[in-house]
Amino acid sequence: SLTAGVVAVQGDVEEHAAAIERAAQAHDREVTVREIRDSGLVPDCDLLAMPGGESTTISRLLHSEGIAAEIREHVAAGKPLLATCAGLIVASSDAGDDRVDELGLIDVSVERNAFGRQRDSFEAPLAVDGLADDEPYPAVFIRAPAIDDVGNGNAEVLAAWDGRPVAVTQGSVVGTAFHPELTPDSRIHGLAFFENADAAVPRVERGQ
Length: 208
Ligand code: GLN
Prior knowledge:
Number of domains: 1
InterPro entries: Class_I_gatase-like, PdxT/SNO
Radius of gyration: 15 Å
Distance between the termini: 7 Å
CATH topology: Rossmann fold
Number of strands: 12
Strand order of the largest sheet: 2-1-3-4-12-11-10
Low-confidence stretches: none
CATH architecture: 3-Layer(aba) Sandwich
Helix content: 10-25%
Largest sheet: 7 strands, mixed
Bound molecules: glutamine
Mean pLDDT: 94
Pfam families: SNO
Function: Catalyzes the hydrolysis of glutamine to glutamate and ammonia as part of the biosynthesis of pyridoxal 5'-phosphate. The resulting ammonia molecule is channeled to the active site of PdxS.
Protein name: Pyridoxal 5'-phosphate synthase subunit PdxT
Keywords: Glutamine amidotransferase, Hydrolase, Lyase, Pyridoxal phosphate, Transferase
CATH superfamily: Class I glutamine amidotransferase (GATase) domain
Number of helices: 5
Strand content: 25-35%
């Protein structure tokens, strides 16, 4: 069985765990999901999710708990990371906010809370490159960031909303401004973990 980690220092953790299980089932894989609150667990994970929440808090705790360096090593080893909403902000190279100590895993700059107060929370049918079929993805945005600049072109835009990138990939990392764990549709988790050609996930079938 694969070991999946959900970074659980703060944010919507259980929903990610359930989405990982749904995606694994759809791809005929078996996963055991562990919540990551301390250092020492990430090295055993085949794949990682970094949830939404409050990016300044998540960033501070990841560094103080010694988890930040382990996530960097995970990605350096080519293992998949799905970073959503606040997770994307933390994974970026520029959060536009001094209180966020970015991990620099995706070479993009982001703007926090980019879609305005009137639209704190909304759902949008998104066309996302690389999904298993052409059905729009029901993307839930909650005080979501937008991607401002894909800078040096290491990151590839997978989806845009209102003319602004909201999903990107770079190597084994997928980042979304929205919350793919909040809808039953597990295609984003499937893309990040089981269909990303750049990510090294061991092939472990169910029942092995
Ligand atoms: N607005 C939050 C932040 O900037 C992110 C919101 C979320 O993760 N839902 O940290």
